[in-house]
Amino acid sequence: MSSAAVEKKRVIVLGASPKRNRFSNKAVRCYQELGYEVVPVHPAADEVEGLPVVAKLADAPRAQLLLSYVRPELLLPIVSAAADIGVRRIFLNPGADSDELAEKIRALGIEPLRHCAIVAAGRSPSEFPDE
To answer: Which CATH number among 3.40.50.720, 3.20.20.370, 3.40.50.620, 3.40.50.150 corresponds to the domain 3-127?
Structure first.
């Protein structure tokens, strides 16, 4: 498989939590079930759903899709790192969205998607149990 093909099936989950009741954790499980290679990013977690965690967005492998579960003020100063690793679309999930952030993302040539990444994948967060 080419590196471009791998990038298309890899998703970065920014703010991924080991707590199963968090939407970021449900997104990890959802996209795993959809066949994506999931890369959780969190500064303090070691593992999410059995996957090793990357501490910083800038250290994540190349991917075309990013799901953000962090407050806009946390993503604003690091969003350029997404462009540096090849991200083309960013889901700004509920609670992670702002007009200022969406504008900055557009300015980087990245498409902001302003809705729930789980629902956009045709699934429901309720399909992923809290325990």
So the answer is: 3.40.50.720
